[in-house]
Amino acid sequence: MDAIILQILNGLDKGSAYALIALGLTLIFGTLGVVNFAHGALFMIGAFCAVTLSKIFNLSYEVIDESQTDFLGNPLKVKTPYVESWFGPELGGAIIDWAVPLAILFSIPIMIAIGFIMERGLIKHFYKRPHADQILVTFGLAIVLQEIIKYFYGANPIPTPAPEALTGSFDFGAFLGFQANAVIYPYWRLVYFAFAAVIIGGVFAFLQFTTFGMVVRAGMADRETVGLLGINIDRRFTIMFGIAAAVAGLAGVMYAPINSPNYHMGMDFLVLSFVVVVVGGMGSLPGAVLAGFLLGILESFASMNEIKSIFPGIDQIIIYLVAIIILLTRPRGLMGRKGVMED
Amino acid sequence: MSKSNLTRRGLLKTSAVAGAGIALPTIFTASSAAAYTNEPTGSSVTLGFNVPQTGPYADEGADELRAYELAVEHLNGGGDGGMMNTFSSKALDGSGIMGKKVEFVTGDTQTKSDAARASAKSMIEKDGAIMITGGSSSGVAIAVQGLCQEAGVIFMAGLTHSNDTTGKDKKANGFRHFFNAYMSGAALAPVLEKLYGSDRKAYHLTADYTWGWTQEESIVASTEALGWETVNTVKTPLAATDFSSYIAPVLNSGADVLVLNHYGGNMVNSLTNAVQFGLREKQVNGKNFEIVVPLYSRLMAKGAGENVKGIHGSTNWHWSLQDDASKAFVKSFGEKYGFPPSQAAHTVYCQTLLYADACQRAGTFNPCGVAEALEGFEFDGLGNGKTLYRAEDHQCFKDVLVVRGKENPTSEFDLLEVVEVTPAAQVTYEPDHPMFAGGNLGTCNPGA
């Protein structure tokens, strides 16, 4: 039982990341009709926003300490972060410690700006081109973005820890009346799940309850008619692209403490998220979220030793297997709408 | 009346074709007149450095390349000479190899066997490389070693830790300076017993390829010999990034030690995940839960950050060693690049000097002559103490370091501390040891 609870938690956690990325992919596909293979790269850039802010906070000046020596036997240069000398070691230390949550604020304008530049600078020229062209250009863009990050940050993962206060783990065992220590789960992963829920809720509320959202939804249903009503739908769609980029970026920022970011992390998620979108139904936002969590949980269960002893290697193929079954039985995906990508 | 078609132009054409025809065999067999592949005829000799310049091990590859360039500089008489001054063999004198200036070409393995073979092939066939060296994965090393055997050039392996490289996949043209998984197990076991006792239950997470399998086999064997029980061994895909679903079952498996047979990005992520799940604060069977990372590297420790503190593993060499050779190497590398070398840099630097020295002693670049000079060669002064290049399997036998993630690092490089230097005798095994059986060195191939 405790093992099952743990895998459900793991699944929700993985599902959060899949759902956030798939949500952005679907937003872009639903509004602009573009299959954006650079979306994983946006997730990666988000994580590197956290790395960058952490590096900025850690910018230091060097003082030569004659009493110590470095690896070559020269006097040691002791580094003190500027933040600590400006705000004192206590507040300065706290700012450095909370770099990842602070990076949320730092990353939003950056991600929206990157989204705008991508859309206006490149992707808009491909709206009328076939999907294959769009996939090729966005995939190429993803590789370019990856290589840029690798050039500046190197190929190795960069540790970006969560704040000290959130590094421990929560004992569900004691909480739910099981044996203590039987079900423990890291705080930060719980935070990630809660954060994803807030973002997903926020995006849905924005589309559902604001005039802007209503126009966008109307545009998704019938772009031409909305345009005929004198509404500049293109501008709104560009804004949606920025928002989708920000959602991917935020997913990346919060993911940085879970696994040390490296330049390749976006690609690892992109393929899975794309499957999530297809399973959920192209263009369906609730479908993307539902499929994200569903596949996350399935993947976690498939990694259980008990399951793997019956079906070896099932953890590697479960997502694709489920995708095939769903597409065979429901060709439009779980919640796909009629007419999407069917012309 | 008969008419001859013979014209002046026709005659010239025919003679030219006939001449070319007669010359043809010598044109095409010119290279076969050489005694071996890529026999250097000019005033220089070309070495091929095949390292990952892109892909997940690119930083490790970059460090290897730095060390190669430093070795070439020293071989050609530049710089301060580094470990050439401390090397017990004095055959090298800074005038290149056998008076020929050392030049090099580089290839990108991308940590993919096919890409690595393609770049090695290109360096041998197009650039005339007389020797191939490098790599930072056992899969790549075994693939390139096979290619070099067929092509008739020497392969000096870089960072490869799988038993198979000098076990079932050993080749007469291939040589490994780096230690292997068996040695890690043999060196770690006594330290683990001292620290954690002989009544432990271990759970293994293992990267699913040749290196992971042989390391798991080695560590299981050496810890079970101590009396430890192996609760479970789980293979994880090399491409995995989030290990939470593999870590979660460890919590209630009854295990009190987690062994991570992971390297590079896999190790960084699995260790980070294990620490996040509170494994290090956990008490199981009345004992503190422990994590062991049998193969450590400083570059990996950097990626895992705080999580490596207090965690034990083994390594081939570490820059903080205080022998004259290590100090000389750290000094010349540190002054040139501004930071200390990694174990990958150390092993490839050694391999380059060892190759050059063997050519010099053998008086030839012929792979068979070089192999003979390396086989059974005993040396010292390259940072690992007395070392033997064993003739039977082309594996170096030397001391192995047991290291621990440092609790209070004084700098960004000061991440590991040496806990014990395990003497070579303790990690030496018979050439026909079951973990290394099944292969055949074969005979050296000079190619051509």
TrEMBL record, chain A:
The UniProt record lists the keyword Transport? yes
Location in the cell: Cell membrane
The answer to keyword Cell membrane applying to this record is: yes
Record keywords = Amino-acid transport, Cell membrane, Membrane, Transmembrane, Transmembrane helix, Transport
Checking Pfam families in the record gives: BPD_transp_2
Q: In which organism is this protein found?
A: Roseovarius halotolerans
Q: Name one GO cellular component term.
A: plasma membrane
Name the encoding gene, please: livH_2
- Spans through the membrane: 16-35, 42-61, 98-123, 190-216, 237-258, 270-298, 310-328
Q: What is the lineage of its organism?
A: Bacteria, Pseudomonadati, Pseudomonadota, Alphaproteobacteria, Rhodobacterales
What name does the UniProt record give this protein? Answer: High-affinity branched-chain amino acid transport system permease protein LivH
GO terms, molecular function: transmembrane transporter activity
Superkingdom field: Bacteria
Instruction: Give the signal peptide, or none.
Output: none
Q: Which family does it belong to?
A: Belongs to the binding-protein-dependent transport system permease family. LivHM subfamily.
Topology relative to the lipid bilayer, per the entry, is: Multi-pass membrane protein
One of its GO biological process terms is: amino acid transport
Q: What is its main location?
A: membrane
Automatic annotation (TrEMBL), chain B:
GO BP term (any one): amino acid transport
Q: PROSITE patterns of this UniProt entry? A: TAT
Which InterPro entries does the protein's record reference? BCAA_transport, Leu-bd, Peripla_BP_I, TAT_signal
Report the sequence similarity comment from the record: Belongs to the leucine-binding protein family.
The species is Roseovarius halotolerans
UniProt KW Transport keyword = yes
The Leucine-binding protein domain extends over 45-406
Protein's name according to its UniProt entry? Receptor family ligand binding region
So which residues are the signal peptide here?
1-35
